[in-house]
Amino acid sequence: MIQQFDLSEYPLWTALITPFTEQDTIDFNGLAQLVAEQVQANNGILLLGSTGEGLALTMDEQQEIVRFVCNLAPNVPLMVAVGGFNLKQQVQWLEFCNDMPIHAYLLGSPLYAKPGIQGQTHWFDTLLANAAHPCMLYNVPGRSAVAIDPQVLANLSHHSTLWAMKEASGDIAKFEAFRSIAPELAIYSGDDALMPYFAQAGAKGLVSVAANAWPKQTAEFVRRSLAGTYPNLFSQWSRAINSLFTVANPIPVKVLMHKQGRIDCPDLRPPLTHTELTDHAAIDAANHTILSFN
């Protein structure tokens, strides 16, 4: 029987990395340790997002990861990413995941095609209709090449599975437009550094890259942001967190976690490579800042 969680009690979801071995296989021992760290910090876990290099994995590997983490039975909710460009394949992925003990989905916009309002509505309408768990839509035009139109939320409002949105455009005006058209929808920041601003605007939480490297510290950052108790928090954290995005995510965070001794190998799947990050001074300084934060 699937363990039940109140998703509203988890303001921080960690977009978990996928650790690899030097032989380019999944490091399941390392993955188990990373899951345990997130459980200890009481963070929700997102599997196979862009930070988890989900689209660089084969379908068999994706299924292996979901089965493996589900078998660990972590005492926090699990969210699984759904994304790509082939709608039938995404429905098949949902059919697989619907039978697993997970608790939510992250539904990404279709890649490359750049659909308008009708195409976006059809895409999400189909996924929401086939999802057995609550769904968080993902607005990330920097990756999908098109922003979700606020009207799409109105078109999808009849779906009981529509629970939340991850807003990662970096545009507070877009956040406000989503809130205006869907006031009951929980909106989460998809940008670590902007969390204090989004909290002031009514965000319910954060889907985080930084929480991979700093699980407990990022959880505290989110709590203080939501409580409004963050003197100097934005400037301190934004400088540190921006170091994780000097080259394509998740290159810096994997390099940092390797330097922390928390993963054995910093490797990524092509076309990404850890060799893109030639200067580690920024992430070293960020690590010192975050770990000394109180």
Textual characterization of the structure:
- Homotetramer; dimer of dimers.
- It is found in: Cytoplasm.
- It catalyses: L-aspartate 4-semialdehyde + pyruvate = (2S,4S)-4-hydroxy-2,3,4,5-tetrahydrodipicolinate + H2O + H(+).
- It comes from Pseudoalteromonas ulvae.
- The protein has about 290 residues and is an alpha/beta fold.
- Helix content is about 40%, strand content about 15%.
- It has a single domain (about 5-225), classed as Alpha-Beta Barrel (TIM Barrel), CATH 3.20.20.
- It is built from twelve helices and eight strands.
- It is globular.
- The termini are far apart.
- How confident is the prediction overall: mean pLDDT? 94
Secondary-structure element order, N to C: EHEHEHEHEHHEHEHEHHHH
Strands ordered across the widest β-sheet:
1-2-3-4-5-6-7-8
* Structural Rg: 18 Å
> How many structurally independent domains?
1
Gap between N and C termini, in Å? 40 Å
Low-pLDDT stretches are none
Structural class: alpha/beta
User: Which percent range describes the beta-strand content?
Assistant: 5-15%
In DSSP terms (H or I, runs of 4 or more residues), the helix count works out at 12
CATH superfamily: Aldolase class I
In CATH's first tier, which class applies? Alpha Beta
Instruction: Describe the global form.
Output: globular
Using DSSP, what is the number of strands? 8
Helical proportion, percent range: 40-55%
Quick rundown:
This protein is an alpha/beta fold.
Please render the helix and strand layout as text.
Elements lengths: L11 E4 L12 H13 L3 E4 L11 H14 L5 E5 L4 H12 L5 E5 L8 H14 L4 E5 L1 H4 L5 H6 L6 E6 L4 H10 L4 E4 L5 H6 L4 E4 L6 H13 L5 H10 L8 H9 L21 H11 L3
Parallel strand pairs: 1-2, 1-8, 2-3, 3-4, 4-5, 5-6, 6-7, 7-8
